Amino acid sequence: MARMDRDTLADFLRRRREALSPSDVGLPSGAGRRTPGLRREEVAQISGMSVDYYARLEQRRSPQPSTSILAALARTLRLSRDERDYLYRMAGHHPPDSGNVPSSFVRPVLTHLLTQLDDCAAFVVSDLEIMLAQNRLSVLLMGDRRAKRHDAASSMTWQWFVEPKCRELYPAEDHDEHSRVRVADLRATWSRRRADADVAALVDGLLVRSQEFRSLWDRQDVEVHHAARKTLMHPEVGRLTVECELLATYGDGQRLVILSADPTSESYSKLQLLGVVGDDKVSSMIALDQ
Which residue would you say has higher pLDDT here, 276 or 269? Predict the structure, then answer.
């Protein structure tokens, strides 16, 4: 194990913290912020550590952080793969295997692509179904699902099995299939990264919390869906059918998903209605048409 460089590590953490805005991690900007970027307590909270521990890292007086602490900081600070590897080295650890550890850093070109897909709902998720980025139509269709933290409870798979309200977007008759697909997809991720702490936390937590998950997990189904047709139940525009396409997977564990509809269909018209008038005006528009 290499020697920890406390001075360089402290300076790197501070500079990366100051380079982020609250909105980058899903926090309100607020008024009266006297320092640039995120506060120390915000980084600590999102990363799941005490404020005192994080402060000691920036003050060059901490013990050597563990790899789990470094992984949490890399996610919170939205580090690229190169920055993450640098963080590990300055902390005296070997960088993780790039083929196994996902990143929460969404490439700028991918973010730009999301904004250009104005007639489709598009989003980027991690291999544990943690929402990393959404375009406007995706937010209007699904709600703002962008994760503020990157722990097990932030996974949409966790929310599906633990928080019943998350199922309201889909017809009840489709719930069993959605459950099966989510577990089969998680099995595929688990097979690649079963030694990683984030995967173990999600799987072990669901095994404890959900009998339905346990039953499906025991079936050993393994399947990553690259294309599927889905029916959604939007509270304002009602029932619509979309084609779900997984367009890209990356070595850093990210997936670009696009939800589109046949341009001649009623579902397409409903998507466009959401995109044009926004969620808050859809109800009044539908009332005028009736």
Answer: 269
